[in-house]
Amino acid sequence: MEDHCGSILIADDDASFRALVSTLCLRAGYDCVEAASGAEAVAAAVARRPDVVLVDVDLGDASGYEVCRELRDRFGENLPIIFISGSRTETYDRVAGFLLGADDYVTKPFDPEELMARVRRAITRTTQSKQTSSSEKFRLTPREQEILRLFADGLGTQAVSDRLQISAKTVSSHTQRLLPKLGVHSRTEAVALGYREGLFATAAATRA
Fold first, then answer.
1. Mean pLDDT of 49-71
2. Which residues are 52's β-sheet partners?
3. Which of 132, 154, 197, 207 has the most CB atoms at less than 10 Å from its CB?
4. Is the pTM of this model over 0.70?
5. Does residue 169 share a domain with residue 108?
6. What is the distance between the terminal CA atoms of the chain, rounded to a whole angstrom?
7. CB neighbours of 12 closer than 8 A, spacing ≥ 6?
8. Is the pLDDT of residue 175 over 90?
């Protein structure tokens, strides 16, 4: 199995369906959280913000539409939400789903590879959004981000110099500028902060 590179919330009142989708997602390297009702879905998302939400349109205690609106109110437009339905499969159902804020709409039965392709696309979108947000927050230049990512991969100054074909002195100069931007005092602290803030998210999504 690949390293975990995203978290997926699966909200469906059918336990066997949740188990199926969880298996597919885990095999692809994603963490999964299951919810059997709308209330559980919202509570799980609040406890740990997922990277993608897969929600059945017809849940036991609420509609997927209501869950979507609640999550949109809490997390805004940057949380990808994919509706899934085996009963509401007409074109107007899908249109309604998009109008209510869904990013995608999948009907049952579905092809597992197609579902995972849609999930990967959504994961890429949310991880890129996280990275962009964090990069803007710390005002890192593209070169500084690149050097920090290579440090995270375990490369030292000379190895980074060789990889980027720039001098070791230039790598050190970039490092001296990026550390204060991140508010840390060492490369180790910088890498740890980078993981916490999602600065390496896009690279993880690409490897997936």
1. 88
2. 8
3. 197
4. no
5. no
6. 11
7. 18, 21, 35, 36, 54, 55, 56, 59, 84
8. yes
Tell whether 120 and 197 lie within a shared domain: no
Q: DSSP secondary-structure letter at 101?
A: T
| 69 and 101 Cβ atoms separated by less than 8 Å | yes
The secondary structure of 82-95 as a DSSP string is: EEEESS--SHHHHH
For 155-170, what is the mean pLDDT? Answer: 94
Q: Give the pLDDT confidence score for residue 1 in this predicted structure.
A: 37
| Strand order through the sheet with 52-56 | 31-35, 7-11, 52-56, 81-85, 104-107
Candidates 125, 11, 24; CA nearest to 68 is 11
Position 15 pLDDT exceeds 80: yes
The last residue of a domain, from among 129, 151, 176: 129
Closest CA to 156 of 188, 192, 129, 203: 188
d(CA 121, CA 138): 26
Query: What does residue 33 show for φ and ψ, rounded to 5 degrees?
Result: -125, 130
Q: For 32, what's the count of Cα atoms within 13 Å in the CB-facing half-sphere?
A: 20
Q: Are residues 145 and 125 in the same domain?
A: no
